[in-house]
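Researcher: Here's the sequence for the chain we discussed earlier.
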Amino acid sequence: MTSLPPALLAALEKALGPGGLLTDASDMAPFLTDWRSLFHGKACAVARPASTEACAEAVRLCAEHNVPVVPQGGNTSMVGGATPDETGHALVIVTSRMNKVREIDPIDNTMVIEAGVTLKAAQDAATNAGLMLPLSISSEGSAEIGGVLATNAGGNNTVRYGNARELVLGLEAVLPDGQVLNLMRRLRKDNTGYALRQLFVGSEGTLGLITTAILQLQPKPKSVEAALCAVADAKGALALFSAFRNTEPSAIQAFEFMSGLSMNLVNTLIPDASLPLSEPAPAYVLVELASPREGGALRDLMEEVLGKAFEDGLVSDAVLAESETQRLAFWKLREEHAEAQKRAGASVKNDVSVPLSAIPTFIDRATAACEKLIPGIRVAPFGHIGDGNIHFNLVQPEGADGKAFLARDHEMMDTVANIVRELGGSFSAEHGVGQLKTYMMPSWRGGAELDMMRRIKGAVDPEGIMNPGKIFPAS
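Model: Thanks. This is the structure I predict for it:
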């Protein structure tokens, strides 16, 4: 069931140990397609190393035999970043067995963690130590730390704590020739040449395979307040964000926007999802405030800002969470948007960012342009309005043919991207480029910028074996 030469197959089996190499088609199948079922590939085998040493030996053997390597974590990529191509030449290396939280230091506020630990497990470990790992994304139950870092994931708390890049103090990675690059230093200050760790954060596995990391933790919040608010549109949502930011910016932990159409899909298609407001609204905001201090100050702050927002006509209705259960119910409404859109039919994801001030203009212009392009299209934007990242998702018209809809994905993506470009934004805010958006790179990142990326790739991976076909357009 594998195209691997017998000598390489035997060497990989020895390096990876029992259960470490999958060659049966049925065993490999879950690792050969993406979460959205847009990309379907083939592989010569699937490797499951349980240690950095085993991973390094597997990569070294692949380099020796010129076998491409596709790193894969929890396989939650929205852009096909962890799916092999259809040649069947690549070895997929899955990190799920490298799943130890090695150490949590409450003085340094750091966590030493292996690549295969899920983000949710990492969050729980930090919480149990009285600390907080502030990274939070909808797929955190499946997404693994290695993939989270390799894509520089953002998520719900970016507005306060930054993307994954801001939380990485040190890391360890296996290079394309099998060498282990040890950058495991938990220092806040270290000006000794290039910050090489940052090359790997956001590289989507094209420069090496992250095996371990040191992450910066935060004090665990002792006081949290959340509110779900009804607003007229994105302009109103942005004005409400400004109201909170101008009152107490350090208290804002998350500020999420949801369109009325997207929320309706959640309420209709997700079991146990229930809108707690008196009636549906054109748009919604979920705001969460947090502090490491106990007391009622956050509640007072929430009521103060929302009270003024009611008076100014920014908010037409709002519900404040009265318990942790209700707060989590608010977040369920937000986190199930991607799943609801998947159940509604074929969808085209546009993970974009624009300057905060341009968000209302972007949503209005892009909505009008897409509705003109495909009559009946369901425009369902949502996302992290506090940091300028909007998931401008497009769902097929009801009753339409999903395959025919997806066949026009480049038309839709380009329609949205052209408006993003005019507003000074980016066509990929947090999902990455993967293989879905490589065609955009020459026009968006061409010239000296793309040339420098290629030079770095060529220097680190001269044979081009690491995650081929991702980020870079075909030459």
